[in-house]
Amino acid sequence: MVADKVLSIGLVFVGALLIATSFLYARTLCTQTNSKNSSWRFLFTLNALFLVGYVAFILYLYAEKARSLQIVVSMIFCGGGFFVFLVTRISNHTVLESEQRALLDRHNSLHDKLTGLPNRALLLERVSHEIAHAKRENEKVAVVLMDLDRFKEVNDILGHATGDVLLQLLAPRLTGCVRESDMVARLGGDEFAAVLSSVDLDSAVKVSKKFQHAVDQPFDVDHQTLQVGVSMGISFYPDHGSDAQALLKTADIAMYKAKRNAISYAIYDAGKDELNPNHLDLVRDVREAVRCKNLQIVYQPKWDINGRGVFSAEALLRWKRPIIGDVSREIF
């Protein structure tokens, strides 16, 4: 009879251990970020109640006299504990595996497969985040857009596989030029971009020079030494754009200015941006001014310092826009 009692308690104790393990699994499910729903909370509560019931039954068996029927009931308790453990364990494994797969899918959707760097989507997300922070703290955010020079020659002469290796070697060089709070991304092809938080003009230029130095260093690919260059455009929030798309656009315009002028970097200048809406308005208005004869000629006399007086004059064209007034000579 004593042996029956010990066996009964042992069976229920094993079931209680299984329930306790299930309780921990259920707790893990409830604390998962994407698993906080009523089903898992119910499973957690159910496991807690089972655990209390098993402990109470063990105490009951310990206090009561042994009976043969108790062995059967204890076996049922043990089997029930195993069943609950199995269901909770499978649920836990399935949920965690699903979440890991979702995290991996999100990572792949926001990162470049070749270099492992963030892609355009993640860069835009990060720039928007930094703009929101800068707006609260009254700070500046810089976007540096980079386009490799002579990279097309590498692809055309040595093949795309060589070009891919060069890009993979370049990625860690670029990330090594910025702080942990900044981000470098590959936008596609040989185009990269960086978002620099809480910076001023001097800091952004300093980082751009680091980028230039990193790109200028030779690359050893398949026992060949390759060299490329870089053209960069820099734009700032809030000076050159109020959102992520606008900053990338203005940085892109500045980058093409640098490429045209064969310089390593250029800072966006709205006054020299032919794609700026203000520039298009000027073109439209000046045509209208010519048609309506609203341009004026003024004369600037030239004086002979030897005392012969005025001997000639320069004819200067002036334009007074409606509402706005005189247009500066520089813009005109």
Task: Outline the low-pLDDT stretches.
Answer: none
Rg, Cα atoms, Å: 36 Å
- Strands of the biggest beta sheet: in what spatial order? 2-3-1-6-7
What is the tally of beta strands? 10
Task: Describe what you observe in this structure.
With 332 residues, this protein is α+β, with helices and mostly antiparallel strands. Helices cover 57% and strands 20% of the residues. It contains nine helices and ten strands. It has helices spanning 2-31, 38-63, 68-109, 120-137, 151-158, 160-175, 201-216, 244-260, 277-291, and strands spanning 141-149, 183-188, 191-197, 219-221, 224-226, 229-237, 265-267, 295-304, 309-321, 325-326. The strands form three sheets. The protein has a five-stranded mixed sheet with strand order 2-3-1-6-7, sandwiched between helices. A hairpin with a 4-residue loop joins strand 8 (295-304) and strand 9 (309-321). Helix 5 packs antiparallel against helix 6 (160-175). The longest helix has 42 residues, at 68-109. The radius of gyration is 36 Å and the shape is elongated. The chain starts with a helix and ends in a 6-residue tail after the last strand. The mean pLDDT is 82.
